[in-house]
Amino acid sequence: MERKILLQVKDLNVQIGEQEILSSINLTANKGRILGIIGESGSGKSMLCQAIMQSIPAVAKSTGQILFQNTDLSSVTKESLRDYRGRHISMITQNPLVAFDSIQTIEMHFRETLKAHYVLTKKEIRQIAISAMNKVNLPNPEKLLQYYPFQLSGGMLQRVMIALSFAMQPKLYIADEPTTALDTVNQKKILTLFNQIRDETNAAIILVTHDLGVIAELADEVAVMYKGELIEQANVFDFFDAPQHWYTKKLLQSRITF
């Protein structure tokens, strides 16, 4: 079956001062496919996600291309970039606290996010928000919409952030350790939901994780990061059955969540 490329990262380098954070990264993400990115802490996984979103720290310098549907995001205007973020590419971070304004209710966050990209009434936004929150297994979403972020637990806030992402219906989801703050039951439900979203909408999903079990269950392709380099990208069967790089072999031999 022919694969349709949605995102291409070409010769990406990110440097902070004299330190090379990412070096010569090349990868692709295809429509309707889940690309798992795996590697130990400090390997550059989160920086790669930020580079794709064009949100690397101000002190960092980057070169290379981030091609989304053949448009180089590194060369578009700030206005165009704001349209791509959220509407076309959605980022789910492992720390939900940084994604919310403490003086705005959850409903205000949905309203602000959706109205930035769609023409919707307050009633329509509320309906979309409740539907999205139900999908991520949040109890009593009508009541939760009136809460402020600091009134929710870390796990609940993480699910609200995922619901916000789902509500936007982007073409590409970038999920950086999206289930870190969740219990086992809700981890399973969120991962199942990612699978469902991929199947129903043909979206591409980049899933960053430390967990080989998640990779085995969900990923179609796997990219392995090591010390700022992407050392291997393969389909999930070749990743487990015929790894090429010594570091990949070491990961599989350990069979642990690191």
Could you please describe the fold and organization of this structure?
The protein is α/β, with parallel strands linked by helices and 258 residues long. The protein has ten helices and ten strands. It has helices at 45-52, 78-87, 106-115, 122-135, 141-144, 154-168, 184-201, 212-218, 236-241, 246-254; strands at residues 5-16, 19-30, 34-38, 60-68, 71-72, 89-92, 172-176, 204-209, 221-226, 229-235. A six-stranded mixed β-sheet has the order 6-7-8-3-9-10, sandwiched between helices. A four-stranded antiparallel β-sheet has the order 2-1-4-5, covered by helices on one side. A hairpin with a 2-residue loop joins strand 1 and strand 2. The longest helix is centred in the last third of the chain and has 18 residues, at 184-201.
In short:
With 258 residues, the chain is α/β, with parallel strands linked by helices.
- Tell me the total number of β-strands: 10
Q: In angstroms, what is the radius of gyration?
A: 18 Å
Strand neighbour order, sheet with most strands: 6-7-8-3-9-10
Low-confidence stretches: none
Class by SSE composition: alpha/beta
State the helix count.
10
**N/C terminus separation:** 34 Å
Written as H for each helix and E for each strand, in order along the chain, the element string is EEEHEEHEHHHHEHEHEEHH
**Rounded average pLDDT:** 90
Most strands sheet: 6 strands, mixed
Which band does the percent of strand residues land in?
25-35%
Shape: globular
Percent of residues in helices comes to 25-40%
